[in-house]
Design a protein that fits this description.
Layout (H helix, E strand, L loop, with lengths): L6 H5 L2 H10 L3 H13 L4 E3 L14 E6 L3 E7 L9 E7 L4 E9 L6 E9 L12 E11 L4 E14 L26 E4 L23 H4 L3 H14 L8 E10 L4 E3 L5 E4 L2 H17 L18 E7 L16 H13 L5 H11 L1 E4 L3 E2 L22 E3 L10 H14 L4 E3 L12 H8 L2 E6 L1 E2 L7 E4 L2 H20 L5
Parallel strand pairs: 1-2, 4-13, 4-14, 14-18, 15-19, 16-17
Antiparallel strand pairs: 2-3, 3-13, 5-6, 5-10, 6-9, 7-8, 7-10, 11-12, 12-20, 16-18
Helix pairs in contact: 6-11, 7-8, 9-11
Length: 493
């Protein structure tokens, strides 16, 4: 429904965002939570393996997943005509983390059981020392009754692992600015129970082998396998360690997202980049197709003539090159298949190109909030603040999609929905980061802008945003969906 979010509405998204971050520590849990949220609001799950013709209807709401770590959701207006535009918000739902190695058992050292992990993107930096770390992710389990391999999500969210620092009393090694991430940042997960004179070394017979019955479990720390198996047994009492075929596990900060500051005006949380914009975009899509503007009371309306789309992608932090990344065919093919399902016996390539040309995309990734302790590194008049609103991200060298047309477009959207736009551009003597925007807009030829909520401490294990920022993101993104057709009508470019 095309109504502005009030201050109370904006505030209503704070606690749901805290819960979303705390309860979904891995990319697989986050996508699963988004899928459940969409289903509870009337969205229908599609399978990429199935034929979509006959399934997609005008006025319908749908989503499709890929790898369990990326998700594209969309709403077809009841007045949609093939070739009409698409209002798209693209974000990434992965976050900097660490991942358990394929063979994670490590030889016991000094009586400690350790876990083999590898950094994903910029993880294992100095902020990962001495943190309470949990383990969770996706487990492939064989159902012996049906003979099928299924995916299960597991989460050991109490502190399991820790990467200990070296006390300063030991001198120079404790102050090494470049510790070795392979040998000096290995988490401890327990004490060796075999006694001080026994070494739990790797068996040369199993090292490097990935075939045969129960071999996978034998390459992992036994007590970790037991802990994972216990969780699986809560769902299926017949599950044993030998039923585990493989897994993809992350090691994550267990400290919950929480409010901070004298007036609780901050959110201190892990994994903000970019689950913050993913959360705001999904909630905006839901709110835009409801008669209410709050988090909990959806009631769909159907009066649009466009397709509203939110894509939350994996692998942005490592380049987006995999099949679940934004540089894959996931979003373009979803749009193409949707147009095809709604335009039987019509020239699909032409209609898809027309859809792209009539569309507009917000590449929604977090931006840098101004840090009061480092004011000199920010470009004057380009330093976003917390609890103000989304920041347009500009870059003269093509690291973002923002240009004069897309900026003017978003300014009109912000005016109509009562949002405030900020702007960020990095100084000439610093290097800009990248987003999913350039790769998607170039692949589709769609007008686009980079705009995201500002945060402090990007790429730290924990970061800071304003307590109103989740709701402020929803407000602008909902306004984009609500007013896209009206604003687009003002532009001939």
């Amino acid at each position: 429904m095309k109504n502005r979010l009030s201050t109370a509405d904006v505030e209503s998204y704070t606690q749901p965002f805290l819960d979303f971050i705390t309860e979904n520590p891995t990319v697989f849990h986050a996508v699963d939570a988004v899928a459940k949220r969409l289903e509870s609001n009337g969205f229908t799950k599609l399978s990429g393996r199935d034929q979509w013709n006959g399934q997609i209807k005008k006025g319908g709401k749908y989503f499709v997943e890929r790898n369990g770590s990326s998700i594209v959701s969309f709403v077809v207006g009841s007045n949609y005509k093939p070739g009409n535009g698409a209002a798209v918000i693209a974000a990434h739902i992965d976050a900097i983390t660490t991942k358990v190695k394929p063979i994670s058992t490590k030889p016991t050292k000094a009586g400690y059981v350790q876990l083999g992990i590898a950094p994903y993107a910029g993880a294992l930096n100095k902020t990962w020392w001495d943190r309470d770390l949990g383990i969770g992710g996706k487990v492939l389990v064989k159902d012996k009754t049906r003979g099928k391999i299924e995916t299960k999500l597991v989460k050991l969210d109490h502190p399991i692992a820790r990467i200990p620092t070296l006390a300063p009393h030991f001198g120079a090694p404790a102050y090494d600015p470049n510790p070795n991430p392979e040998t000096q940042m290995v988490p401890i997960i327990g004490l060796d129970q075999s006694g001080p004179d026994k070494s739990n070394t790797l068996s040369s017979q199993n090292t490097g082998l990935l075939q045969g019955d129960a071999v996978f479990a034998s390459t992992q720390p036994p007590r970790l396998v037991n802990a994972i198996t216990r969780i699986l047994k809560e769902e299926n009492s017949a599950t044993t360690a030998s039923d585990i075929i493989n897994w993809e596990l992350e090691v994550f900060d267990t400290q919950p997202a929480q409010l901070g500051g004298l007036e609780k005006e901050f959110i201190f949380a892990p994994r903000i980049d970019d689950k913050l914009c993913s959360f705001a975009a999904i909630e905006a899509l839901i709110a835009s197709t409801s008669n209410t503007s709050t988090h909990d009371h959806p009631d769909p309306t159907q009066d649009d003539s466009i397709i509203k789309i939110v894509g939350c992608f994996d692998d942005e932090e490592i380049g987006s090159l995999l099949r679940q990344g934004a540089k894959s065919n996931f979003l373009p093919s979803t749009i193409e298949r949707t147009v095809s399902a709604l335009a039987p016996n019509q020239p699909i390539p032409d209609l898809v190109s027309q859809t792209f040309a009539n569309g507009f995309m917000i590449s929604a990734d977090v931006s840098h909030a101004v840090n009061p302790n480092y004011l000199s590194v920010y470009l004057e008049n380009h330093a976003p603040q917390l609890n103000v609103g989304v920041a347009v991200q500009a870059d003269p060298n093509g690291h973002t999609t923002t240009n004069s047309v897309s900026t003017a477009f978003m300014q009109r959207v912000a005016q109509k929905c009562g949002s405030t736009l900020q702007v960020f551009q990095i100084r000439n003597d610093s290097r800009s980061g990248g987003t999913v925007g350039p790769m998607l807009s170039s692949a589709m030829g769609m007008r686009a802008i980079d705009a995201g909520l500002p945060q402090l401490s990007m790429h730290s294990i924990r970061a800071t945003v304003g307590n109103l920022d989740p709701g402020l993101g929803v407000k602008l993104f909902k306004g984009f969906f609500d007013h896209f057709e009206e604003v687009d009508g003002e532009f001939s470019v």
